[in-house]
Each structure stands twice: as structure tokens, then as C-alpha cells.
Write the C-alpha cells for this entry.
Amino acid sequence: MNELAVVTTILIQCINSLNSELPENKKLSPTHETLLLAEGSNIDSLQLISVIVDFEEALAIHFKVQVSLTTDDAMSLTESPFYNVNSLANYAFSLISK
């Protein structure tokens, strides 16, 4: 499995961890296209923050590198890295690869 696939798998695991805390009708079915911070998303801002914190911690453990996904740079990008699972995984991968 390549590193981007590992990053994506870690993010999906973090979403599944959030799912364990949600009622059945609020659970996400995480795929690459699952919306995070976009119109039509089933995740609220506090839940997204929880996923991001878990994701940063999991990346630190797996890749032995600290990343911060919510920097000013991330917020100023033309295309939000928080749009969906794929965009966040790609953004995290770009930080890990530096």
C-alpha cells in the first residue's frame, strides 16, 4: 500500500471512530468522496474538529511526524483541503511528504 493510501485509510479509521459515538441515523459511510466541510455534509464543525485532531495524532504515530492541518496556509488555499475525505487525505499527504 502506498503512503497516500495509508493516509486515506487512517482518515477513514478516524471517521469510523467518530461513527462509534453517533446515533445510527447520523453515521457517515466514509469513502474518498465523503463530504466533510461542504454543503450537504453530514458532519458538524465540532465533529470535524474531533476527526482532525484524531487524524493528526494517528499520522504522528504512524509516520513519526507532527502535522498541523488547520494552519493559516490550509485556510487560505483556493480549494479547501477540508472539502471531502480525498482532499483532506491529499493535503495531509503533501505535508507528510515535505
Notes: The mean pLDDT is 94.
